[in-house]
């Protein structure tokens, strides 16, 4: 670790939000004690310092306006911060309390909500879609499609994904209308085919079997037990809008403002949360369904989310399962116009990272920063990332 990184490790103590997060799990005890000042800093503190240096370099070299990161160590959110600008024109700095689009990292949250209803005995993963939505919304020739197929992208279904500008007066299809235009394109359980309308259907099922709106359910049953207070994740309220990072593209190394959008398949990925909020959800999954003493899932249901659902395949329920640096990791990326996100965790160590940027040009960056963060959290000393191109 270089001198700059060591200085930043100590600097964390002077920033209340960061030091409170780290000190709450004893991360800074070794590096800040006057009696033990020669002890090497713990991996989470080193990771935070190294990520600050790396992220600021990437912002300067790419033109991406802002990057926000939250870290999970041993199943606990230990650090969150943001770098760059939430709004370029207004020179509004991004902070750890800046809200970004989740993109499709919302899909594991929807899958967890379904598993909560399974835990409660209201649903089974083997329930067929058509039996759950009723004959008035049944998808033709899709009686064999069940919830497991829907959540793992093995449904063999496809349907309309409509996008309009936030400020256009066009009316989007309802979830019911979207399902009515969904059709079968393959056999369920045979081939992976990414399916946003499947998660629109999952959102509809959550509403029907919980008796709540999707926002109310996610707010009260998923996020509130995690210590996250947000009333409407998919319909940002004024207090969220005023702290929201705006979307940008990048042209010739410069950020360019682009339009905000909305879509008919909003349960598939149109929510606005902070990285530390989503990191708390990731931590709960890595902990077997529990976070800071509050259980949101049974251990078996949490494990089901990150278990390959079909033989020799990396599709879990909402999550992807794969190999990074020879280790099994669970992850989900997200793309929403003007935003890129990555959620990644190591079930063996219960370490993880949630990374988001407000730019269409940040897909490689958020994915590789998440991998870089996991290496640092394991105590490794990886070289700086080499940007493509």
What does this structure look like?
By secondary structure, the chain is an alpha+beta fold. The chain is built from 14 helices and 17 strands. It has helices at residues 3-11, 16-23, 29-32, 43-62, 106-119, 129-133, 147-152, 175-180, 196-210, 214-223, 238-241, 275-286, 299-305, 363-377; strands at residues 66-73, 76-87, 92-93, 100-101, 157-158, 163-165, 183-184, 248-251, 254-257, 261-263, 272-273, 290-291, 294-295, 320-324, 327-336, 339-346, 351-357. The strands form six sheets. A seven-stranded antiparallel beta sheet has the order 3-2-1-17-16-15-14, sandwiched between helices. The chain has a two-stranded antiparallel ribbon with strand order 4-11. Helix 1 (3-11) packs across helix 4. The longest helix is centred in the N-terminal third of the chain and has 20 residues, at 43-62. The protein is globular. The two termini are 27 Å apart.
Q: State which percent range the strand residues make up.
A: 15-25%
Roughly how many Å is the radius of gyration?
21 Å
> Helical amount among residues, as a percent range?
25-40%
Strand order, main sheet: write it out: 3-2-1-17-16-15-14
Backbone shape = globular
Draw up the topology in text:
Layout lengths: L2 H9 L4 H8 L5 H4 L10 H20 L3 E8 L2 E12 L4 E2 L6 E2 L4 H14 L9 H5 L13 H6 L4 E2 L4 E3 L9 H6 L2 E2 L11 H15 L3 H10 L14 H4 L6 E4 L2 E4 L3 E3 L8 E2 L1 H12 L3 E2 L2 E2 L3 H7 L14 E5 L2 E10 L2 E8 L4 E7 L5 H15 L12
Antiparallel strand pairs: 1-2, 1-17, 2-3, 4-11, 5-7, 6-10, 8-9, 12-13, 14-15, 15-16, 16-17
Helix pairs in contact: 1-4, 4-14, 5-9, 5-10
């Amino acid at each position: 670790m270089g001198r700059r990184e060591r200085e930043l490790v100590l600097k964390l103590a002077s920033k209340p939000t960061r030091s409170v997060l780290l000190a709450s799990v004893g991360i800074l005890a070794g590096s800040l004690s006057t009696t033990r000042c020669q002890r090497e800093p713990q991996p989470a503190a080193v990771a935070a310092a190294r990520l600050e240096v790396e992220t600021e370099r990437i912002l300067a070299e790419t033109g991406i306006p802002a990057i926000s990161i939250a870290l999970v160590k041993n199943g606990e959110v230990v650090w969150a911060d943001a770098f760059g600008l939430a709004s370029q024109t207004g020179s509004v700095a991004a902070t750890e309390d800046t809200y970004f689009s989740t993109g499709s990292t919302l899909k594991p949250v929807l899958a967890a909500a379904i598993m909560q209803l399974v835990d409660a005995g209201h649903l089974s993963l083997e329930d067929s879609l058509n039996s759950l939505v009723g004959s008035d919304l049944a998808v033709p020739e899709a009686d064999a499609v069940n919830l497991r197929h829907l959540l793992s992208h093995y449904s063999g279904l496809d349907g309309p994904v409509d996008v309009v500008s936030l400020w256009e007066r066009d009316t989007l299809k309802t979830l019911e209308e979207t399902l009515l235009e969904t059709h079968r394109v393959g056999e369920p359980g045979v081939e992976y085919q990414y399916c946003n309308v499947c998660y629109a259907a999952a959102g509809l099922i959550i509403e029907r079997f919980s008796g709540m709106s999707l926002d109310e359910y996610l707010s009260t049953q998923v996020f509130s037990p995690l210590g996250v207070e947000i009333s409407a994740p998919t319909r940002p309220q004024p207090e969220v809008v005023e702290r929201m990072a705006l979307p940008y593209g990048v042209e010739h190394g410069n950020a360019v403002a682009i339009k905000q959008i909305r879509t008919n398949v909003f349960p598939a990925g149109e929510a606005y949360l902070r990285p530390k909020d989503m990191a708390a959800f990731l931590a709960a999954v890595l902990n077997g369904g529990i976070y800071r003493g509050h259980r949101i899932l049974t251990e078996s249901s949490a494990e089901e989310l990150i278990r390959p659902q079909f033989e020799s395949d990396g599709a879990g329920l909402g999550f992807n399962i794969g190999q990074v640096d020879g280790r099994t990791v669970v992850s989900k990326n997200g793309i929403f116009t003007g935003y890129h996100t990555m959620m990644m965790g190591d079930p063996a160590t219960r370490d993880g990272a949630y990374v988001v940027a407000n730019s269409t040009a940040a897909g490689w960056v958020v994915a590789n920063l998440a991998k870089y963060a996991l290496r640092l959290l394991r105590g490794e000393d990886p070289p700086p990332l080499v940007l493509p191109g």
